[in-house]
Amino acid sequence: MADDASEVTRLLLAWSDGHAAAGDALMDAVYGELRKMARGYLRRERASHSLSPTALVHEAYLKLVDQQRVKWQNRAHFFAIAARVMRRILVDHARRDLREKRGGGAVHVELENAEGLPQDTPVDVVDTLALNRALEKLEELDPDQARVVELRFFGGLTVEETATVLAVSPATIKREWAMAKSWLYRELTGGAAPPAVG
Fold first, then answer.
1. Is the pTM of this model over 0.85?
2. In this predicted structure, what is the pLDDT of residue 121?
3. Cα–Cα distance between 155 and 93 in angstroms, integer?
4. How far apart are CA 140 and CA 147, in angstroms?
5. 146: Cβ–Cβ under 8 A, 6 or more apart, which residues?
6. Is 113 strand, coil or helix?
């Protein structure tokens, strides 16, 4: 993994410096992981979602390639931005689906399947738009916690990768993740206290 991370970082830096061939090599290097992120997220959604993992990856990659002003730092930075891009794409698609169906058929996300969320959490499904609204509220209250949720939930980053992206300790990420999940749970369930985890 360390070799893969350093190769992706090397390609990102070369691409940032204007080497077009590095962009093609980068796509080959990150495609599998972007697809894994997309599959993991879409698996938490209803089977009727209009996006396939391949379509989500391609749409996200086109937007990432368009990021001309970004000075890529490393692999974790790339996947952090990929998480944000995927979130925007999924929210846009959910809004479009909602408009097309005039209020019905919103895309749903099983929050319980997010890594680290207790499996006995009674929330079965949370719609993408509700989650996005809750994240926007959390961004106003605590931008750091909202960023942790975005990186872990939408980006699929590990605690360690999230810590690298945000330049804090893994212990800080674990604490922020736990607090953010509790806040989101209360927000999405109308104020219910999260279940005790033993």
1. no
2. 31
3. 17
4. 11
5. 135, 138, 139, 180
6. helix
Q: Given pLDDT bands bounded at 50, 70 and 90, which one contains residue 136?
A: very high
Q: Are 32 and 1 in contact (CB under 8 A)?
A: no
Identify the DSSP state of 45. B
pLDDT confidence of residue 107: 47
H or E element at residue 163: helix 159-166
Q: What angle do CA 70, 152, 139 make, to 5 degrees?
A: 70
Q: What pairs with residue 127 in β-bridges?
A: 108
Which whole-number Å values give the CA distances from 3 to 7, 10, 78, 82, in the listed order? Answer: 6, 10, 16, 20
41 close to 86: Cβ distance less than 8 angstroms: yes
Residue 108 sits at φ, ψ, to 5 deg, of: -115, 145
Average pLDDT over residues 1-21: 79
Angle CA(163)–CA(2)–CA(175) in degrees, nearest 5? 15
Q: How far apart are CA 82 and CA 74, in angstroms?
A: 12
For the stretch 53-69, pLDDT in tens is: 888 888 988 888 777 67
